[in-house]
Structure formats: structure tokens, C-alpha cells
Specification:
This protein is of the alpha+beta class and 211 residues long. It is built from 8 helices and 9 strands. The protein is globular.
């Protein structure tokens, strides 16, 4: 199954689970500074992860980068987010390998750390756009401005796909997110595994997901 399609199923799996349909399932539609959403779903020996975080939590701003320093901040943040085993620490006994990482952000006009095939597609698509006149560029800018007015704050979307030879050995997952991105105050975790369907909140004082 295609990585992006498979990972996009996480939310559907979680939302379809009976316990998640109750009030215990918490998903914040509003864009909240200091709050990160973390969805985890087990599918056999695979662990699928989706993280959504405000730009302010990751780089300290949510607008398009205005200078080279801000571009560098985004690049550095994405390099850190790409280190899946530093963001989420799985037990060595589970023998997990990172099979796929995708990082996107809405601060910039492109996604810089998606799958390679997508990068090529995006490049071709963008090239076609440049063949149009300046009006298209103005339309793009207007669309971005319009999104900002509608509350479309810049954010990061991260996907991890782990393959684990002994996935039953995962009894807890520790995250270093709060050390890496100290602007985050709370992470809401929505968890769906073969043995658990639950939601929990993590903080810097309690950064461990109990399965």
C-alpha cells in the first residue's frame, strides 16, 4: 500500500473505533499554540504515526519565512523531525525500523521533506505554474493571504511508519518532543492498537505513552 495513503488512514481508523467515537476522543479543531496532536495506530507489525503541530511550536512563527534566517529555522526543524527515533523512542526489544518519514509544512509554498516521488511531481507542477503570467502568482499570494485571514495558521504535519519485528514488546513509547520543541505545552495522543483504544495528554513532566 502506498505510504501516504496508508498513513492517511490513521485518523480514519481512530475515528472509526467505538471508544474513540465517545467523548473520550479529543481532537482540537481549533489551531492552538502550544498544543500538538499525535495519532498512533498499530496495523499488525506496523506502527503508523501522524503528528500535527503549530508552526509557533516548531520554529516560533506561523507566517511564511521572511528572510534567510527563518528559512534556515524551518530547514533545521525539518531535519530534526526527520529523526523519527529521536522524536519517538521505541523499546530496542521491539526491533523497530523506520520505513518511511514525511514532513510537510504550510508556512512555505512547497513541501520539502515528502517522499522523493512526490517532490518530483511537485517540481513539475510548479514548473508548469511558472509558465503562466504574473496574474497566477498574484492569485497564489491572494490565496495565501485569504487563508491567513481565515485562520489558516502555518503548521507542520509529520508522518512516521515503523516496522517492528516484535511489536508486542512495545509497552510504552517515550517522546523527546518537549526537549526538542520546548514551545509545546501539551500533546494529545490518540492511540489505537490491537489491545488499546484510548486518548491521553502528555506534558514535559509526563512524556511517556503507556500502551
Amino acid at each position: 500500500m502506498h505510504h501516504s495513503f496508508k498513513l492517511s488512514l490513521i485518523s480514519c481508523l481512530i475515528l472509526s473505533a467505538p471508544v474513540m467515537a465517545e467523548e473520550s476522543f479529543r481532537q482540537h479543531d481549533a489551531h492552538l499554540h502550544g498544543h500538538v496532536e499525535l495519532n498512533i495506530a498499530q496495523d499488525g507489525n506496523e506502527l503508523l504515526v501522524e503528528i500535527t503541530a503549530p508552526g509557533s511550536d516548531i520554529v516560533g512563527f506561523e507566517h511564511a519565512p521572511e528572510n534567510e534566517a527563518q528559512h534556515q529555522q524551518i530547514e533545521n526543524a525539518e531535519a530534526q523531525l526527520a529523526k523519527a527515533t529521536e522524536v519517538l523512542m521505541l523499546p530496542a526489544s521491539a526491533q523497530c525500523q523506520v520505513e518511511h518519514v514525511s514532513i510537510k509544512n504550510t508556512l512555505e509554498s512547497h513541501d520539502s521533506h515528502d517522499e522523493h516521488a512526490h517532490d518530483e511531481d511537485d517540481h513539475d507542477h510548479d514548473h508548469d505554474k511558472h509558465d503562466h503570467d504574473k496574474h497566477d502568482h498574484d492569485d497564489h499570494k491572494s490565496h495565501s493571504d485569504e487563508s491567513d485571514k481565515k485562520g489558516g495558521h502555518g503548521e507542520f504535519a509529520v508522518e512516521y511508519h515503523f516496522e517492528c519485528a516484535q511489536i508486542s514488546k512495545i509497552t510504552e513509547i517515550k517522546t523527546q518532543w518537549f526537549e526538542l520543541f520546548p514551545n509545546t505545552e501539551e500533546i494529545t495522543v490518540n492511540l489505537l492498537t490491537d489491545t488499546a483504544q484510548t486518548t491521553m495528554d502528555l506534558t514535559s513532566k509526563q512524556p511517556v505513552i503507556k500502551l
